[in-house]
Amino acid sequence: MALVRQPLRPLVCGTIARSSTIAYRNFASTSWAGHSARVDNKPRDDSVSQRSFHQSRAELDNASTALKPEVRKREAERTVVGEETQGSEGPHYKDQVMPIANASPLTSQGSWTMMNPIYTDEELNVVKIVNRPPTTFSDRFVQRLVKFLKRGFDFATGYKSIPIDDATLALRPLPVEQLRAKGQLLSDKNWLLRIILLESIAGVPGMVGGTLRHLRSLRLLRRDGGWIHTLLEEAENERMHLLTFMTIAQPSWFVRALVLGAQGVFYNAFFLTYLVSPRTAHRFVGYLEEEAVRTYTHCISDIEKGLVPEWENVPAPRIAIDYWRLPEDAKLLDVIKAVRADEATHRFVNHSLSDLDQKRDFNPFALGEADAITRGTTFGFTREQSAQFVKEQQQKLQNQAKRL
Ligand SMILES: [Fe+2]
Ligand SMILES: [Fe+2]
């Protein structure tokens, strides 16, 4: 319990500095290994070597900023959005003219994203719906607020959580259309509407928190204790969810208007909340993510029972295969399981961050993530558990440093 009285930061400052040095050393040696290999094939004249290095560097830079001619044509015709393998937000990194010989394997896949978890089958299937019991007045308030907002959201998207009885599930063919007509089942289009609205909102909190902490760090000329990166990672992860689902179908103008309005209200409300009480803001996100896990669990269950026939055996979009490193024959169901595992991570991280001293504590997940089973089946660390986790990560890094 003595740890509770201490900020988490002093526990790990030394380790962070050392691990950064190791990371820098590894990065530097990787870059220079590639450089040496090219230069070593040239005559051993430094000026020639330098010139050839700078030439190839310039070629690479020019190439990497240019789009392939066919992509320029496609862009001009504006047919890129939502096309399979073409990304869903305009040109993709693969659309660049990049000479294969010069491209590092590190840049060939997924280099446009930050780090994100890659899951095993067990980790994808173990995710559970868990609810963190509120412990303070503010917890109770935000939990009720989330439930209230969810009711409005359910109404807007036609969502009802009605279990389908076993006798109906045993019927062949399944009476999907009748169940949909009775409002007991969501259609594929309504699932997509719900998911797109949910994801367009879910990408806001990480960016707001990251921005405010970034500005605070600049303003006070102080380090942030590793929070910013985790929050930006979450924002990007949510945006990748959105882009993935947008490859299935393009939202109508009405949905786009809803997204616009919701973002305008939610961004400002969350910004003000984070300014006043970041602890409350993280708790709010924790409860929101509990609902996201619930929604995706329902969706997965419906697909597995054959209640969303349009999504059975649909191949995973290319963007998802790249992002989650899924097998080439992965299905949309695998993608939704990966999304749910991400939501469980956000649930875990935000509830854990909410329990910390917002101004003094180090982000425990800056040194490493809790394992995916823990993230998928529990609602977060208490402050004492975070302190213990930091100590374990610190020890792990020190042992690694000794081995190098
Ligand atoms: Fe999401
Ligand atoms: Fe999320």
TrEMBL record:
One GO BP: alternative respiration
Gene Ontology CC annotations of this record: mitochondrial inner membrane; respiratory chain complex
Ranges that cross the membrane: 253-276
Keywords for the protein's UniProt record, in alphabetical order: Electron transport, Iron, Membrane, Metal-binding, Mitochondrion, Mitochondrion inner membrane, Oxidoreductase, Respiratory chain, Transit peptide, Transmembrane, Transmembrane helix, Transport
EC number: 1.-.-.-
Role this protein plays: Catalyzes cyanide-resistant oxygen consumption. May increase respiration when the cytochrome respiratory pathway is restricted, or in response to low temperatures.
Protein name as annotated: Alternative oxidase
Source species: Kockovaella imperatae
